[in-house]
């Protein structure tokens, strides 16, 4: 996954007496590990520092290669971190390989995904893209129950 936005803490300083704003960013999906929820080339709207819970899709630093960002579903808390899994059971590169991800490597929660707008810019093409190409990324609440049932 490649990152197009900023990491938390790189924005302006908070104003005293005002709630700090949670920064937003954009990331791009590379690879098949989150298929069918996310596809290679999807753009993600990421809310950095947002509260998370099991079932959410999140952007994290890879625990073994921290300059690499990954997007995974948070399955459950284990051993002081998050057990994370891809939605594609045939793809590798999740907690089954590297174990729990420490909390400090969790960067943000994915709120929406959009597919890049094709070459056409007609009003009809844009409306079609808005209807089909932009979707919220919702938490799957039954995910941790399914994990325990296996």
Give a structural overview.
- The longest helix is centred in the C-terminal third of the chain and has 10 residues, at 123-132.
- Strands 1, 2, 3, 4, 5, 6, 7, 8 and 9 form a nine-stranded antiparallel sheet that branches.
- The protein starts with a strand and ends with a helix.
- The radius of gyration is 16 Å and the shape is globular.
- The protein is built from three helices and nine strands; from the N terminus they run ββββββαββαβα.
- The chain is 14% helix and 31% strand.
- It is of the alpha+beta class.
SSE blueprint:
Elements: E1 2-3, E2 24-28, E3 43-48, E4 57-61, E5 69-78, E6 81-85, H1 95-98, E7 101-102, E8 106-114, H2 123-132, E9 134-136, H3 143-149
Antiparallel strand pairs: 1-2, 2-3, 3-8, 4-5, 4-8, 5-6, 6-7, 8-9
Give the structure's gist in a few sentences.
With 150 residues, the chain is α+β, with helices and mostly antiparallel strands. The chain contains three helices and nine strands. Residues 2-13 have low confidence and may be disordered.
Strand content: 25-35%
Coarse structural class: alpha+beta
Taking pLDDT < 50 over at least 5 consecutive residues as the criterion, the unreliable ranges are: 2-13
Tally of separate helices? 3
The total beta strand count reads: 9
Order of helices and strands: EEEEEEHEEHEH
The global form is globular
- Strand count, sense and closure of the main sheet? 9 strands, antiparallel
Cα(first) to Cα(last) distance is 28 Å
Could you tell me the radius of gyration in angstroms? 16 Å
Q: What is the residue-mean pLDDT, rounded to a whole number?
A: 82
Q: How much helicity do the residues have?
A: 10-25%
